[in-house]
Amino acid sequence: MHFESLTPFELRVLGCLIEKRWTVPDQYPLSLNALRLACNQATNRDPVTSYDEHTVREAAQRLTKYGLARLASGHSSRSIKYRHLAEEALGLDREQLAVLAVLMLRGPQTPGELKQRTERMASLATLADVEQVLAALGDRGYARSLGRRPGQKEDRFQHLLGGAPDETPAPTLAPAPTLAPAPTLAPAPMPAPAHTSAPTYTSAPVASTPSAAPFRPIAEDGALADRVSDLESEVERLKAEVAELKASLGG
Fold first, then answer.
1. Is 60 a member of any domain?
2. Are residues 184 and 120 in the same domain?
3. Which of 16, 154, 169, 213 could connect to 38 by a Cys-Cys bridge, CB 3.0–4.6 Å?
4. pLDDT score of 117
């Protein structure tokens, strides 16, 4: 059996068996109902599931066929119980199994998160200890690094049991739309003044130019800001030319 063929159901059951062996030793091996509750608990699980008893039983039975678990019920036991055999099947020690179990139960994590979340299962005193375990898991093909998320200082790691899970890339923001430059306004032609024996000038009505609302760039972009500044200067120049024309015509 190749560990790449493990299903999400089997991974959740195996992870719970490893975890509960050390966190609740008085209840271990786990009955079918206890194993179902462990799979579906709302804390320390990602994703949170709602497996029924049939799903958990089928997954546990398949793990026994793979040599990763076995029935642990005695002749006097009133319920079926299960225990894992991951140490022998995977060839890992307690610290390595603890880290692997947390990765199975909670998804990709940083060494700092793994150190905190394995405290009840194994003794990993420093981040260096966790990184050493992750390196060993990587050498065995059980885990790999995913690199860093934006804003994080540590790489994240994921397990490779059941194959390499697809890592959803972080969403990228679409670039801000580029604004087309506003058309340059040309002054309206003024009618020629009428000539009489005594030249007089009649001012033509000039439509008032509404003040332009301040334009704010939508992005901190140097080229866009320069273009906006040029447009504002052009508007001010046109307003000045119109004012001078009105003054020359006696307006």
1. yes
2. no
3. 16
4. 96
pLDDT in tens, 32-62: 999 999 999 999 999 999 999 999 999 999 9
Please state the three-class secondary structure of 11-49 as a single string: HHHHHHHHHHHHHCHHHCCEEHHHHHHHHHCCCCCCCCC
Query: Between helices 32-40 and 53-66, what is the axis angle to 10°?
Result: 100
The size of the chain, in residues, is: 251
Domain presence at residue 121: yes
Q: Are residues 69 and 190 in the same domain?
A: no
Which domain, by its residues, includes 224? 176-194+202-251
In this predicted model, what pLDDT tens digit does every residue of 148-179 receive, in sequence order? Answer: 888 878 899 999 998 755 554 444 334 444 44
Question: Of 143, 131, 18, whose CA–CA distance to 85 is shortest?
Answer: 18
DSSP 87: I
Helix or strand run (H / E) with residue 181 = none
Tell me the one-letter amino acid at 196.
T
Output the six-digit token pair for 250.
């006696």
Domain co-membership, 42 together with 149: yes
In-domain check, residue 94: yes
Run of H or E residues at 244: helix 222-248
Q: CA 117 to CA 103: how far, in whole Å?
A: 10
CATH number of the domain to which 155 belongs: 1.10.10.10
Tokens of 36: 């179902």
Do 183 and 122 share a structural domain?
no
Q: What is the pLDDT of residues 56-91, one digit of tens each?
A: 999 999 999 999 999 987 555 678 899 999 999 999
